[in-house]
Amino acid sequence: MTALSDAGLPARPRLLRPAGLLPWAGALAVLAALWLAGGQAGWLNSYPDAWILPLRDWVSEAMRWLVKDASFGLFTFKELTRAFAGLLDLPLQICLILLSRGFAVPLGGDAGLLIPPLSWLGVTGALVWAAWRVGDAKLAGLVAGCFGYLAVFGQWNSAMVTLSSILVAVPVGILGGAALGILGYRSRAAERALTPVLDLMQTVPVFAYLVPVLFLFGFGPVSAMIATIIYAMPPMVRVTMLALRSVPAEVLEFGRMAGCSRRQMLWKVLLPSARHSLMVGVNQVIMLSLNMVIIASMIGAGGLGHDVLTSLRRLQIGDGLEAGVAITVLAISLDRLSQAIANRTSTPVHLQADQSYAVRHATWLGIVAILAGTYLLAFFLPALRSYPDWLTLDTGPLFDDLVQWINVHAYSVLDAVKSWLLIHVLIPFKRLLVEAPWPGVALLLAVAGWRIGGVRLGLTVALLTVFIAVTGNWEKAMVSAYLCGISVVLAMAIGVPIGVAAAANERVHRIAQNTVDTLQTLPSFVYLIPVVMLFQVGDFSAMIAITAYALAPAVRYTDHGLRGVSSEVIEAARMSGCRPWQLLWKVRLPLALPEIMLGVNQTIMMALSMLVITALVGTRDLGQEVYIALTRADTGLGLVAGVCVAFLAIIADRLIGAWSHKRKQELGLA
Amino acid sequence: MTDGQNTPTLASPAAPGSPPAKLICRGLWKLFGADAERFLERTGGDPSAQQIADAGLIGAVRDADLEVGEGEVFVIMGLSGSGKSTIVRCLSRLIEPTAGELVFEGADLRRADARQLTEIRRHKMGMVFQHFALLPHLSVLGNVAFPLEIQGVARGEREARAMEMIDLVGLSGRETYFPSELSGGQQQRVGIARSLAVKPEIWFLDEPFSALDPLIRREMQDEFLRLQRVLHKTIVFITHDFDEAIRLADRIAIMKDGEIVQIGTPEEVVTAPATQYVAEFTRDVPRAKVMSVRALMTPGDGAGTEGTVPADARVNEVAHEVVHGRKPVAVVDDAGAVIGRLERAPVVDVLAPGGPEPAPATAAAAS
Ligand SMILES: Nc1ncnc2c1ncn2[C@@H]1O[C@H](COP(=O)(O)OP(=O)(O)OP(=O)(O)O)[C@@H](O)[C@H]1O
Ligand SMILES: [Mg+2]
């Protein structure tokens, strides 16, 4: 079909044309009929308990068997997990000794010699030096500021505990991810096996696999690290496959002409040629690992995450905020540092042949010199060893006062807003979803899938929906859908106008871009802190936190989509006399809609991942199920509920993705 | 596969007079698409273009025959998509041919197993790529030494050899630079030095200068000719630029839609185009650049001449001397013996084609 009418204006979506409406009307009619019938047949309204497939019990059983009885002949499964944990524990202990607690050498009796950890000033100085060498003075300043914050606000020790686990988890995640990526690059079969697993991993909420990890490895920093690695690894796998694939064909041919063996090809040609793209993966692993810091502390990570979590539980907003900001500054400095390193590797600069050894290796020599120098100096100047207490700032009370003040002065207003929204919007919507007959909803979704993406999509969607019902999670899933849905609508309502403004104005664009970038480096938990501070626990707080977290893609995709509309079409519309508003409404927005819908999709994904975290503020949805499973170490419950969340995400993703693709084709954009 | 595989005639020396063939390829086919080999068998090994298209295949190389002589610069020339890259990759088996025979130094290259092929590529083949294909993380020295490193040559030795090559291509002093710090022309010099580091017996160049701007391209062509005067390599050179082809080639193969339509010296191709297609191509080429003195001379002794010119010189190289001389010049062969004389008239005719025929550019504009 023709994509654009002669005036260059978008055609009407096919789904909305009369003939296409019939199946929709049918599905809606069935839904309505079932709703009415629900009065008579109770099983229509809520999925009967007797029909529930005891999947979670089976999973729990299987896990129990794995841990208790499974054996590989020479060793048991449990011994295997123990050995693996031990292997990871060793480097972690070394990092902890170096950065945080030092090492006590027992000298018999009570006597012992404490070998102290590295000086805080030394660690900061070494990083600043490295930042200056790989980046510029600005980066060095940033790193100095960030690590200075950690020291001044009394976060140093916790931060070093967190940094230690990052220092171990990140290399393991990178190596593991790269290894799997290489496997996927080399073998089609491996790739086909990996892709769906990666898809699922990126949609299953983190909590869901905290449970089996907890079950297999017990509570403690190593378990936390393993969960972090599992969470942070998938993007590295993808990036590796992509990076290796995009090595130019000529370079590969050169390798073959030079007579490289398979191994030489990989290590000497492919990986080095792809290293710039690989660094993107490294950066992602670092950021995701930091994102996991708080969540991982639920299964024993300690450090900053632990601080945030305990303060949050005790509603000590000030302390929580300080630790949360500490995670953020850690994330920002590591992010910028790794990006600077990535940029440097992509444009190497030659050295003069006559430069001395010291000049050529200045970065490393400098780091070692700073660390060693401050270490020795600290024996004479204890203030170098650990940051002196009397110089520490504590903003905790300040924030507690602020909360107090807000509660005293603004409580009535905030509460009124909250109550009004709850009564008039949130609760009715929730009831609508929860009370809708599940077979009708499944049918409606299936019809949607069929109309948008064909029979296969329809069937997939139907199966995923039915799985949720069959495993007995329907009601919880609908609560999730309601919270998520309302937050997404809100996020779009705020984000799209900002995106429109950003597309229209360079300055707004730059500001929005920077803000969005920064928002995305904040760990998701940090969003909870101010929200709980203002609105206490409950659905409303959850909604605000989810909205705030999911806002970024709404802005980004709208901006990007509008900017992507071809300038010729815009000129054509101008020539036919469109006024600015008409141009926006009738030309640019419709053409950018497929892209904006991808933004909606991303927003939903972000919302779902935040959903589980908001279980902490007392929602009653699937997230809460997963959270409960975590506290009870109930693997079956956690996994099944987690997979249900993933299925919600996948349903939304496939439907919107298919629609956007189809619409783009209709518009001749893809 | 066609019959006649491995017959002894295959590796027999080329016709007397021409140099011994280094690389021979006969009946070479490369069809892209599913089940190409089966398709070729089904169609008796000689499908028409229509049959190939109907089967949904792409006939990148169709029934190509060629022989590259020892020390020869063999240029394969054709428009974009005509199959040049594919054929040159088939010659080194970077791409596995669908059918056909390849004989390299008298041995059947298609029978070589992976190990042998690696050995041949390591020691006997070099290749230069259109987009240089340098390794971004290695310095110039590291890049040039890379093929030797792969072979396990000790560091000192390989770097000494690499320095020699860097010197040869005129990049001394830049050996510590990284590719991203070099201009396109310099990068291709690195590519050339790298491909020569293993002292290859045969040298493949796939549009080595196409990514460079015209001035640099010209300079690199001169550089290439200078190198070849020193090295006397057997060369397969790919280009889509006819001017480049006639400047560099001993012989040219012209490809169209996967087929070789003519093979010959630049002079033959220009003066006796095999098809309308080749004629179109060569129409704008100044004849003086390709015609040799031999083709214009009057056989005989050197009576009444003044000065000598070599028989294999191009007309434009001797034009000044002949046109401004008072007498015809004597033509001598390689050994210096006089074999004929060159008059002024034929030279002028070649330089300025007489008659009403308009200049090519105006002809194009008028039609
Ligand atoms: N891997 C492949 N799969 C399918 N078709 C291919 C493949 N490689 C090349 N072709 C096709 O084979 C034909 C010849 O391609 P080739 O790259 O050899 O052309 P070329 O003469 O080198 O052109 P250029 O000057 O653009 O490099 C083209 O039609 C091309 O599309
Ligand atoms: Mg090519």
Percent in strands of chain A: under 5%
* Unreliable sequence segments of chain B: 1-16, 356-367
Number of domains of chain A: 3
Rounded average pLDDT of chain B: 86
Q: Which structural class best describes the helix and strand composition of chain B?
A: alpha/beta
List how many beta strands of chain A DSSP finds. Answer: 2
Supply the CATH class of the largest domain in chain A. Mainly Alpha
Shape of chain A: globular
Domain ABC transmembrane type-1 (chain A): 155-338, 477-656
Protein name (chain A): ABC transporter permease
Main location (chain A): membrane
Membrane topology (chain A): Multi-pass membrane protein
Short description:
The complex is a heterodimer of chains A (670) and B (367). Chain A is mainly α and 670 residues long. Chain A is built from 30 helices and two strands.
Q: What would the keywords be for this entry?
A:
heterodimer, A: 670 residues, mainly alpha, MetI-like fold, 3 domains, 79% helix, disordered N terminus, B: 367 residues, alpha/beta, CBS-domain, four-stranded antiparallel sheet, 14 strands, binds adenosine-5'-triphosphate, binds magnesium ion
